[in-house]
Structures are given as structure tokens and as C-alpha cells.
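To the wet lab folks,

You asked to see what we're planning to order before we commit. Fair enough. Below is the target structure as C-alpha cells, and below that is the sequence we designed to fit it. If anything looks off to you, flag it before the synthesis order goes out.
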């Protein structure tokens, strides 16, 4: 115990640990790997704060103490600078990006200019003129950084106490004064983000299957989660495949987002705006569809994993084609997808459709009905709705995976005409600030986070959407907690579980009481698996489905400390080795002469005490 306390005390005197870091991690697909990684023990480098792109020469060429751990302001986190650092990676130990408190006005998107290229409907086989965004570049600000491979760690840190400590250490020990090089000791940083998977998905899955122990270590996991869906009227979910006399309109949105850094992808406009809009629509239509059921069933669907080559939507289509879903594609009448719909002061909504499938007269007719219906519904609202050129292709959307299977009528609603208006698509800046979300006055950023209900902070997005959709489309039933949790109305009910899902809600505590009054919500909300069919088929090199996996990693840490000069380290090592060798020689000599050095006269055997 005393050693643990002592060692801990010494460790604290040597290192300052970083508390709020967000790393870039490694992802893999059928052909290659992207992302970042460190060595197994972590990368160590002398801190250097980059002031401008011209200042790169110090890091890449002239600095006398490489490798360097480069500190970047967010304005310098550009493709140009990062690619130069990548090319000179022999002198770069890692990069730390300081996240700003406000969004960069010029915009920033580390995604590609043509999101989900090669995984949608627009291929050379479908229409060569529309493939690879030949007709429309949807994300013109996309610089593709999130799809590059870096052989050093890249972390994002908040502009807070950690950043101030890092900068102070740099200013005190590493900053050049009057043009002279800094003197030792220098401030250094260690970043550790060691990734287990390498090369591509096929390689990492093969390594997963090699079991040398009873508890084998996985090196990668396939990306995936669950899709959430609910029908406007009950349907039997136990029987799979085609439903006679059932015609369904899919109302869809996506649930996922990403950025360059792991676990910091708010997706306010790219994702949340669609989720909120579709949830609001489902809530508004609940009573109307119950009192006057429409001719067609509405299937409110929230897809997961769409950022990574349409994982959720491709899995639902696959399940429908293989009788693993309560409906099949013959039951699908049309698709209405809610894309990015965050309205700014000068924006309007655009109704996108597919020009190729519209060559089919029946599809064209249904699409025109959808478009005209949406225009008519918006006439009394303070929202402008229009249709782009009908020759323009669909934007990146889940609907494209349904079109890959067959020509289905559909419309994608977005706040953009021919390119995204979202200046921060798939970045850490696509946040509440960008949508002008307002909070009570005089709140700090930490207090703004605390302003959200506990539900939002505790549940993952998929579970949160599932519960919210159940609350907005379901109804409270007089059922005991036991029966509710056993998916039944009473002990004799064995049919309701095929039609409904029952969720027990804790409820709120009434005034002057601490006991919550729970109740049961019955809804048609279900979830289905959102893992790419490639992993069910074991086709890890296919181009037909998403093959994205995420590397397993060791503990991710960052810390700063002072380092001595290389000469001093070598001198210390030399002295240590000399002392060691000397002690070994002395020990040998003393041991070999012990009888002489430590001998004493023997006492008589008759001696008594």
C-alpha cells in the first residue's frame, strides 16, 4: 500500500493528465482503412503550437527536437495542413486540435464532396451521367479528411483548463525567444490511441475468427445498431413477408451522424432536424389516423448507420427481400424521406425525386401526387416549398437503397436545392449553435448541457427515439406492471404481443409525494437489426453492401510532462550502466572473498551461555 501511494504521488508530480479528449479512431471497409492510431505505448513528442501554415517548416524541417506534437487552432485544421503533416509524419508524433467555443464562419466538413458514393442507386449501370456526383456535388465544402489514413494520433481538446495548461507549458518551456531555440527541459506530450485492426475488414474479421485462447480478443466490430419503426395501425409482426391487402407509405429519417473525432458528432441539422420533424409529424397524425384511418398504412421509420453506406436502409430492404421483415417490397407503395430540414432565415424546402424511375409513367404519376400534396399542405403555412429541376438526381438518402431494389415512387425533403446548405455537414460544428437553439440567458456551455432532461443525457439516440416514438404514437392502457413487462393485457392474453409493444413508464411523482406513478404505454413501435447484410452473408469484400467495421482499441489517454535533452538522457543512462556494472563487479569480488573478509575464530564446542 505504501508503494502505491508513493508511486501515485511521484506520478502526479511528473505528469499532467488530459481529462476531456476526443480521439480520431480507425475504421475499415472492404478495401482499406481510415482514421488514426498511435503506437502500442503511445506517441511522444515535443509540443509545438502552429501559428500559421508558413510555420510548418519548423515541424517538418528545421526544428532541432523532433518528433513534434503539433497544437492546432481549429482554423488551421485544414486539408492542406493535415496532408503536409501526414507526408512528413517521420517528424510528427501527433496532432492536438483545439475545439473553439464558436463555429468557424467559413464552414467546415471533413466528409467527402459526394457522400456515400458507390453505395447508392447512381452507378454506371443505373445512369452513368449521374454516377459519382457528375451532375450535382452535394457537399461542396467536403474536404475528405475523415476518410484519410494517418499513422499518428489526432485528438481534439476543449478550449478550457486542459488547453490552458498545455499552452502554458509550451509558453514556459518551448517557445522561441528572440529567435533562439528553446533550452531543455522541454514540454512534451504523450497521446495513446493504439488500434488493434489493420488493413481492411476481411483481414480483421479473419483475425477475429482465430481463437488461441478460451477468451479470444476481438480486433474489430462491425458497425451497426437497430432501426426503429412504427405503423399507424397494428400489424402482425410475428409473421414475416408479404401482407395481403396492405399498402404502406414509408416516412423515413436517419438517426446517425459522425465527425472526424469519435463521440463528438452532434448532427444537429444533418440528423436531428429530420428526427424531430418526423417525430412531430407522427405525433400530429396519431389522432387523425385513429379517427379516420387512411387507405394506406404509414410506416414511421428511423434508419441507423446511414452515414456508412446506408447500413440501416440496406438491411431493411434485404430483410424485405428475404421474408425476414413483417412486410415485403410489394407492400411498399412509396417513400417520403425527411432529410436536412433545419430552416434558416433565407431557406426553403425542396422536394427531390429520381429522374430515372420517373421515366416509368406509373411512378411519375405517384411522384407528382406526392409533390402536389406536399405543396398543397404547405400553402397555409409560413414555409416555402418548391421542386428542383426534374433532371437532377436524388441527394444522398436512404430512399436510394429502395430504388436499387425496384422503381418505387418517392420524395426526399430537404432545405437545399442542388447542394447542401449545411456548412458543417458531418462535423463537430453541426451543433445547436448552428440551428440557433436558444437557452435561458446567462447560461454557460456546461449549464446548457445540464438544461436538458436526464432522459436525453442517459439514453443512447436509438433507445431515446424508440421511447419518444412510443410516447407520441402510443396510448396508455390500464395494465399492471407485470403484465406490461410480459407484453400482454392480462394473464390470458397471448395475442397482443404479435401486434403491439408494451413499455412500462415510471411516470412522475405527484405533488407532495416522492413515489412515482407508473403506467403502461401500448404502441406499434418495434426495432429491427441494422447491421449490414455483408456480415450475415460473410461477404467482407462485397461492393453491394456496407462493409464498415471499427477497430477495437486500447485505453485512450493523453498527458504532458517535461523531458530532458537527449545528451543528458544518454549521460544519465551511461552513468547508470557504469554504476550497475561497478556494483556487479564489487558484488562478485566480495562474494568470492567472503570467507576471508568475514571470517572469525570458532568458539569451543563446550562453550555455554
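Sequence we intend to order:
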Amino acid at each position: 500500500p505504501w508503494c502505491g501511494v508513493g508511486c501515485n504521488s511521484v506520478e502526479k508530480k511528473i505528469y499532467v493528465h488530459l481529462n476531456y479528449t476526443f480521439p480520431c479512431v480507425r475504421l475499415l471497409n472492404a478495401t482499406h482503412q481510415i482514421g488514426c492510431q498511435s503506437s502500442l505505448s503511445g506517441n511522444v513528442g515535443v509540443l509545438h503550437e502552429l501559428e500559421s501554415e508558413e510555420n510548418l517548416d519548423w515541424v517538418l524541417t528545421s526544428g532541432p527536437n523532433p518528433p513534434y506534437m503539433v497544437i492546432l487552432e481549429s482554423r488551421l485544421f485544414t486539408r492542406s495542413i493535415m496532408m503536409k503533416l501526414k507526408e512528413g509524419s517521420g517528424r510528427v508524433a501527433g496532432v492536438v486540435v483545439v475545439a473553439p467555443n464558436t463555429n468557424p464562419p467559413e464552414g467546415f466538413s471533413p466528409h467527402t464532396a459526394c457522400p456515400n458514393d458507390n453505395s447508392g442507386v447512381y452507378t454506371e449501370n443505373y445512369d452513368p451521367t449521374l454516377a459519382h456526383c457528375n451532375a450535382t456535388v452535394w457537399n461542396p465544402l467536403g474536404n475528405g479528411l475523415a476518410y484519410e489514413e494517418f499513422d499518428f494520433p489526432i485528438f481534439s481538446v476543449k478550449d478550457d483548463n486542459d488547453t490552458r495548461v498545455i499552452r502554458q507549458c509550451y509558453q514556459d518551456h518551448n517557445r522561441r525567444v528572440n529567435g533562439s531555440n528553446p533550452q531543455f527541459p522541454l514540454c512534451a506530450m504523450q497521446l495513446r490511441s493504439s488500434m488493434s485492426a489493420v488493413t481492411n475488414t476481411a483481414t480483421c474479421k479473419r483475425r477475429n475468427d482465430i481463437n488461441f485462447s478460451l477468451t479470444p480478443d476481438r480486433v474489430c466490430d462491425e458497425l451497426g445498431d437497430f432501426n426503429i419503426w412504427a405503423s399507424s395501425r397494428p400489424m402482425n409482426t410475428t409473421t414475416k413477408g408479404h401482407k395481403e391487402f396492405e399498402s404502406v407509405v414509408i416516412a423515413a429519417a436517419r438517426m446517425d451522424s459522425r465527425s472526424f473525432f469519435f463521440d463528438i458528432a452532434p448532427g444537429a441539422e444533418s440528423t436531428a432536424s429530420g428526427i424531430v420533424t418526423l417525430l412531430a409529424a407522427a405525433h400530429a397524425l396519431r389522432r387523425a389516423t385513429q379517427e379516420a384511418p387512411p387507405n394506406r398504412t404509414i410506416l414511421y421509420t428511423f434508419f441507423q448507420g446511414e452515414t456508412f453506406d446506408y447500413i440501416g436502409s440496406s438491411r431493411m430492404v434485404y430483410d424485405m427481400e428475404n421474408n425476414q421483415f413483417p412486410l415485403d417490397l410489394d407492400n411498399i407503395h412509396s417513400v417520403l424521406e425527411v432529410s436536412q430540414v433545419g430552416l434558416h432565415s433565407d431557406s426553403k424546402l425542396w422536394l427531390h425525386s429520381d429522374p430515372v424511375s420517373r421515366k416509368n409513367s406509373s411512378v411519375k404519376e405517384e411522384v407528382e401526387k406526392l409533390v402536389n400534396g406536399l405543396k398543397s399542405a404547405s400553402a397555409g403555412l409560413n414555409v416555402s416549398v418548391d421542386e428542383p429541376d426534374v433532371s437532377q438526381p436524388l441527394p444522398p438518402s436512404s430512399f436510394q437503397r429502395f430504388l436499387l431494389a425496384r422503381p418505387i415512387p418517392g420524395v426526399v425533403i430537404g432545405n437545399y436545392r442542388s447542394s447542401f446548405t449545411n456548412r458543417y455537414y458531418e462535423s463537430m460544428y453541426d451543433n445547436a449553435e448552428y440551428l440557433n437553439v436558444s437557452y435561458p440567458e446567462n447560461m454557460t456551455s456546461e449549464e446548457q448541457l445540464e438544461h436538458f432532461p436526464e432522459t436525453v443525457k442517459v439514453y443512447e439516440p436509438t433507445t431515446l427515439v424508440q421511447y419518444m416514438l412510443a410516447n407520441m404514437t402510443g396510448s396508455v392502457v390500464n395494465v399492471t406492471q407485470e403484465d406490461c413487462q410480459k407484453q400482454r393485457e392480462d394473464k390470458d392474453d397471448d395475442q397482443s404481443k404479435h401486434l403491439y409493444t408494451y413499455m412500462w413508464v415510471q411516470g412522475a411523482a405527484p405533488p407532495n409525494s416522492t413515489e412515482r406513478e407508473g403506467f403502461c404505454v401500448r404502441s406499434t413501435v418495434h426495432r429491427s437489426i441494422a447491421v449490414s447484410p455483408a456480415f450475415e452473408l460473410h461477404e467482407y469484400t462485397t461492393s453491394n453492401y456496407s462493409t464498415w467495421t471499427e477497430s477495437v482499441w486500447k485505453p485512450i489517454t493523453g498527458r504532458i510532462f517535461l523531458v530532458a535533452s537527449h545528451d543528458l538522457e544518454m549521460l544519465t543512462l551511461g552513468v547508470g550502466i557504469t554504476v550497475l556494472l561497478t556494483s556487479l563487479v564489487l558484488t562478485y569480488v566480495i562474494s568470492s572473498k567472503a570467507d576471508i573478509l568475514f571470517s572469525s575464530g570458532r568458539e569451543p564446542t563446550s562453550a555455554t551461555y
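Structural context that might help your review: The mean pLDDT is 91. Residues 566-592 form the longest helix (27 residues).

Thanks,
Computational group
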